[in-house]
Every structure is written in C-alpha cells, then in structure tokens.
Design brief:
There is one protein chain. With about 450 residues, the chain is an alpha/beta fold. The protein folds into two domains: about 130 residues, Urease, subunit C, domain 1; about 300 residues, TIM Barrel, CATH 3.20.20. The protein is about 40% helix and about 25% strand. It has 16 helices and 16 strands. The strands form two sheets. Strands 5, 6, 7, 8, 9, 10, 11, 12 and 13 form a nine-stranded parallel beta sheet that branches. A seven-stranded mixed beta sheet has the order 3-2-1-4-14-15-16. Helix 4 runs parallel beside helix 5, helix 5 packs parallel to helix 6 and helix 12 packs across helix 16. It starts with a strand and ends in a 10-residue tail after the last strand. It binds xanthine and zinc ion. Xanthine (XAN) binds next to helix 2.
Amino acid sequence: MKLYRATLMHTPESPFTAPDALQVQEDGGLLVEEGRILASGPYAQVRANHPRAEVVDLRGGVLLPGFIDTHVHYPQVRVLGGLGMQLLEWLDKNTLPEEARLSDDAYARAVAREFLSALRSNGTTTALVFGSHYASAMDIFFSEAAQTGLRVVAGQVVSDRLLRPELHTTPERAYAEGKALIERWHGVGRALYAVTPRFSLSASEGLLDACAALMTEFPDVRFTSHLNENPREVEAVRELFPTARDYLDTYERAGLVTRRSVLAHNVHPADRELAVMAAHRCSAAHCPCSNSALGSGLFPLKRHLQAGVHVSLGTDVGGGTGFSLLKEGLQAYFMQQLLGAQGVPLGPAHLLYLSTRAGAEALDLGDLTGDFGVGKAFDAVYLRPPQGTTLDTVLNHADGPERMLADLFTLGTQQDVAQVWVGGDAVYRRASSEQEVGV
Ligand SMILES: O=c1[nH]c(=O)c2nc[nH]c2[nH]1
Ligand SMILES: [Zn+2]
C-alpha cells in the first residue's frame, strides 16, 4: 500500500456543466493498493487513517490524472513537422509514403517503440491510437504496447480506394484481419480494439459495412475515424456518396455512430450532424494543433457544446505538432480566443478536463480512469519542472493552484514530466541528470 503525497488536481466533473469542477488538494494524499485508489483527501487525514502505508513524497510538483489522447497515429511519428500543406496534399506527399513502409515488420517495430516511448514521456497514460494499414504492424504494436503498461485502444486502419494500392484492402480481408486482431488483442491486459476505417473518402460502402459487421459481432470494441476535417475533403466525400445527407451520414447509415465512436476533427459540421452525434452520444476528438498546422480551420466548440456533443482532445500526431496534451490544451485555448464571440472562453479547469476526464468519457472508460476518484486506477502524471526553468520560476510565484494549472498548460513540455504511472505501475521516470537545468 502506497500513499502518494503531492499537490493534487483533477476534474471528476465537467467544468462545462459543473461550476467548481476543479478539485485541488494542496497537500494531498492518495492511497493506492493493487493499482487502485483506496482513499484520497488532505495528506494528514489519509496518513492518520493509514499510518503504515509507505509514503511517496512528491511535494514540489503537481500530480494530475494521466493524460488521455483520443486521436494519435502510430505510423506517423517520424513524419511530424511536415508543414506547409493542407490535408490531402499532406497525406499524399508526407504521410502515406511513410505508412507504406510499415509493411516491413522491423520498420514497424522500431516505429511502434518510438511512438509508445513518446506517449509515456509526455505523460499520456491512455490513447486511442489510429493504427497501421498492415495487420502484422498491428500485432507488433499491440505486443510492444503490452510491454509498456500503457492503456491503448487501437485498431488496424482500413481503406479500399484513393490512397495508394499497397495500402488498400478489400471488405472481406478487412473483416477477416480485424476479427483475428480483435480475438487476439481486445481486452488482453490493458489493450482494447477500435475498428478504424481511415475516412469515408478512402472507404467504399462495402468496406464500411465490413466495419459494421465487426462492431455487431464484437459490441464492446470501439470505433474511430475522421470527420469534416478539411473543406476539400468534405466536398470529395459529398461527391463519392451522392445519396448521403452529409459526411456523418456515410458512417451513420452503416451503423457506425454509437456511444463508443470517436470521430476526429469535425471542424466543419452541419447542424444535423451535431444533433445526430449528440443523440448517439458519440464523441468528437478536437485536435487543435493539427487543425492549425494543416490549416483545417477553427473548431466550433460552442456549437458542439450547445448541441450536447461530447468533446475530448487529440494530438493527431503527425498532422499535429507533437505528443504533449499540455500543448494541445493551450492551442485549444488559443483557438477559442481567436474565435472571439463565437469561441468558448477556456480556463485551466477546462484544459485539464479536456486532456483527462473527457478522454476517459469518450472511450467509455470513465469508471476506470480520468480522475483521482476512489476506486479509479492510479493513472497519473507527476509534473515537476527542472530547477531554473521558466516554468519552475513561474510556479514558485503562482498565487494559487488554479494559476499553477494555467502555468503548466502555458509553459509545460515533455521536460517537465517527471514520472508517470498506469494502474499503479511506474511506466516512465525522467532521467535524473535532466533534473537540473541552468543552475
Ligand atoms: O489529420 C488527419 N490525418 C490522417 O492521417 C488522415 N487520414 C485521413 N484523414 C486524416 N486526417
Ligand atoms: Zn488523424
């Protein structure tokens, strides 16, 4: 039994609906046994009730629930930084050639290790991972993920048109390979499976039906894809599906819009699409760095919230700009500021919620992770800036915990992630030589 002593912050409820959603213990205690939180509260109180627990002293930093990235591409870690293009050109020139390289198992394994290492070192404990087009690269991914201890919800990406021939499959093969992967990996350790057509632009109706067949046969797997990211993409989908009411309808007609569906981007939604997403309780993964880098547009968060659509955050590596949910939260804030009266003013509690609890809800893992409630898994990130860094200075002069949280989102980077736990297991610890900077 371990008692973690730290400044604790979490958002068990949504600040979009609950005032005072941010819960803080400045000198808090979290009692953890067998990976689960048994008690929490002021340190002195938890200590008095559990005098024999081993104390892990984390004073001097901030302990947050582990970050939850609800849209990130495993095969794209090496193509980060492909700036200067919009979506369709970026896919063609920057991304799809790299994705084809994952047909080589050794290449796929190296990329999987780089990707998983980047998640952990950025404090991400759960991720909805857009996989590879190759089934063998997914076997490799799941086996590498199992060794890291991270929670991954991932699936083979399927497409049968308009990409490049070596990335195409058929509905029959997509079904057979998906079924085999689900049977091998879904619910094994901390892994779950997500059925993942790349986007309707590269998926025939037959392929979407094959995805639906998997969802029917295995009702608790998740579903993910892209939606309404870029105006040229939206127009192309309209031409490819002339009888569909809109982009969402291409998925809806196949029965793919459910409580366990997470659709990335949705920068250009119609009102009907928002109403249907809300009715089916499907989530939108907002990826503000990607939307900025690819010039996709300013996410209409206010319209999503007004329609009742649940929103979480994704880094969208490699369309995005890295693995940090701190940066993603800050960029979400910037974009809402830039929207002026059309934007939603985001405070630090919103940024924490979007990068933790909201992701757990999107993945239907809210009973397991996303906050520090009693009974939840101990999934946590310990942020402690190296001495002498700007963040260290600013935190030392912050006039309260809410301002500290704002400072973490404004200035925090991978270098500030000191330790990470999943289900009570330590999955990352920063090298101690990096603790001291500039002193
Ligand atoms: O941001 C994106 N990244 C991708 O890889 C992709 N594929 C289809 N649509 C996409 N959007
Ligand atoms: Zn994406």
